[in-house]
Amino acid sequence: MKRESFRxxxxxGVPIGLGYFAVSFTFGMMAVAxxxxxxxxxxxxLTNVTSAGQFAGLEIMxxxxxxxxxxxxxxxxxLRYCLMSFSLAQKFRRDESPVHRYIAAFGVTDEIFGISxxxxxxxxxxxxxxxxxxxxxxxxxGTLAGAISGNLxxxxxxxxxxxxIYGMFxxxxxxxxxxxxxxxxxxxxxxxxxTLFKVVP
Length: 201
Known about the structure:
Helices cover 83% and strands 0% of the residues. By secondary structure, the protein is mainly α.
């Protein structure tokens, strides 16, 4: 049962790992461009596995922000993972040990939560382990590739690739916004509020 769950998690995690590689490539490139070493960028990706949190944290480091700024920013950005973990805890099998739950909690991302929550019936933590075994290496290797490329690619190409994260966000929000008017309304409202915060002093 555990082996089957793990294998299914591996299969379902492959598209996530490929997507993570593309996004974390941009993070690695930006981290090196902002003065971090290759291994610092890789260590951040290995221990965090959070795209929005890492990009925001990188900006705080570059601007020499305080630890309080970093802690508060990460808390706000990543608070959703706490809610996802609570939800996923109800989805796990009752006989799942606390140790397995804690380990699986480390790998809770939007995408891994999505595939776990969509499984019929109860889920084994080993399903999450399988997805994590593909997704996390994809994220870390993408960072490594981006960090190495950042030292090799010319400036104009790095500048062009740095907008890849925005392309990923658009790819995430446009399909559901086309299908659901409520999602479209939330996206438009979020864009308007973001623009307002940017323009208003």
